[in-house]
Amino acid sequence: MSYVPPHARRRSKGSTTTNASQSTRTVEGAIKELAKETQRANKKCRSGAEAAGVEAYENVLQSARELASRCARGAGAISDADKAKVFLAETALEFSSEIERRVRRKPLSENSRGEETAANEQAMSLAIEALGVFESVSDSGTLERSNGVATALSRIAELEKDDARAAEALRRAVSMYDVVSTSIEGEGRSLGDALLALWNCADARLKLAERASERKEDAIALASYREALSIYERACGHCDANHGDDLGGFLYDWGCSLTSYAQFLAKCKNLDEAATAADASIEKLRSSSQFSMGAVEPLNALGDALQTKAEILQHVDTNSAEQNLRSAIEEAYGAALKLNGSDLNAHVGVGESNMALATYCVRRSDQAGATQAYRVAWEAYIKALALSDAGDPGNCEERFGVVYNAACAANRAGERDTARVLLQQLLTCGGTTKDVIDADADLQ
After folding, report:
1. Ramachandran bin of 160, using left for φ above 0, alpha for ψ from -120 to 50, beta for the remaining angles
2. How far are the Cα atoms of 40, 102, 109, 241 from residue 106, in angstroms, in the given order?
3. Nearest to residue 279, comparing CAs of 260, 299, 249, 306?
4. 198, 179 contact by CB (below 8 A)
5. In 3-state terms, what secondary structure has residue 4?
6. What is the DSSP letter of 243?
């Protein structure tokens, strides 16, 4: 049913109940039509017609704002207004993510940082709008309001450049997700609903832990990490793949959280616990890849976990460290590339792991092994650079890092002219400085 604005409707003399029912159907029909338009906008963006896709998103968002405004002013059911608000807020968050993804796909240039800043501001404005709309949902939609507010706060934290403000947003998100989780478990809702609520609780705490670690607030970070991991373990009891639960996805997030925790512990020089956490991460991610056949994400994450274990062991057990690097290359990133030879993260992982592997070869005077590892690393980076504008290659700093590491690999592989070209491009874009280049042994 297409949407009919209030001023164009026939006024019926039927009962109030009938009018309310018709109003509800009309609002639901309008939302359904707008949802279809949102899907079309998303497809345009994914198919390369990004300008048309962004325009379509803007049109849907404006229509959603108008619908929410009409419902708020009208005499229809409160639930109608809440449905319109929730759709508006969810659309704003989706558009916010699309704006960020779009700017990341642009070729790197001297304008990249400025374009990313402008896109971040636009995406943040939409996330803040979504937060305000979710907060205005009525008491009859308390659960949806709390979950929406928490989701919007998590998005704001992702976009926030200031660590203190991001941490505050995440603390609020944690509190709201806890409300949702407690309410769902108290209402005796399905195990699937409880799993999702706990999943969100753990994810928000992980983000809070990582922000605290960046600010060197190690005690806060440690407490948040432990809370997140405890919730993942508790949530595991609600997960049942036989009933359609995404066990592979759950294990993936749990494993990635353990990798992050291992890196934090290593930074704090607690190497024994860091190694234990890395082992647990590797176990979870291997299981995730088995439950997510055909997906490259668990395999790439497994490679990252194996790299982390190698870094933890590099000064205490070089043989085991080297073996973990070889496993990352063959078992993880290599397996991902067999599934998808155009996966950017897998190529970068192969490059990183081979550069690290070469250092072990140099230590034991295996020059032939080092030369081979440098060559394989450079070949992997060649492929990564060719894919640097595909999918979601990351923010400016992450992309500059890939180009810089590619230059290091090129230089070590004997491709000095190519390395100089890459470094000059980075200098032009503001992605590095001459002092950094001059101090790097891989670029001598």
Report:
1. beta
2. 22, 7, 9, 39
3. 306
4. no
5. coil
6. G
Token pair in block for residue 16:
């109030």
CA geometry: angle 93, 99, 104, nearest 5 deg: 130
Burial of 181 (0-12, 13-18, 19+ CB in 10 A): buried
* Distance between CA atoms of residues 286 and 170, nearest Å: 30
Predicted confidence (pLDDT) per residue in 41-51, tens digit: 999 988 888 89
Confidence of residue 80 (pLDDT cuts 50, 70, 90): confident
pLDDT for the residue 25: 62
Q: How far apart are CA 293 and CA 290, in angstroms?
A: 6
Largest CA distance in the chain: 92
Q: What is the mean pLDDT of residues 309-330?
A: 96
CB 298 within 8 A of CB 285: yes
CA atoms of 24 and 1, how far apart (whole Å) = 12
Q: How far is Cα 363 from Cα 375, in angstroms, rounded to an integer?
A: 18
* Average pLDDT of span 133-147: 88
Which tokens belong to 405? 């590491």
Helix, strand, coil share (%) of the chain residues, nearest 5: 80, 0, 20
In whole angstroms, give the CA distance from residue 157 to residue 212: 12
pLDDT per residue as tens digits for the range 190-245: 667 788 889 999 999 999 999 999 999 999 999 999 999 999 999 887 787 777 88
Lowest-pLDDT range, 15-24, 263-272, 311-320, 325-334?
A: 15-24
Q: What is the C-alpha separation between 436 and 423, in angstroms, rounded?
A: 11
Give φ, ψ of 268 to 5 degrees: -85, 5
Rounded distance between C-alpha atoms, residue 212 and residue 183, angstroms: 28
Collect all residues with Cβ–Cβ distance below 8 Å to 224 and sequence separation of at least 6: 205, 206, 208, 209, 212
The dihedral over CA atoms of 353, 358, 364, 366, expressed in degrees to the nearest 10, equals: 130
Provide the b/e sequence for 326-337 (b: ≥16 CB within 10 Å).
ebbbebbbbbbb
Structure token digits, residue 178: 């806890």
Tell me how far apart the alpha carbons of residues 246 and 291 are, in angstroms, rounded to a whole number: 9
Inter-residue contact 30 to 3 (CB < 8 Å): yes
Query: Who contacts 54 (Cβ-Cβ below 8 Å, separation ≥6)?
Result: 41, 45, 98, 99, 102
CA dihedral 277→281→282→287, nearest 10 degrees, is: 140
Q: Is 327 helix (H, G, I), strand (E, B) or coil?
A: helix
Is the pLDDT assigned to residue 54 strictly greater than 60? yes
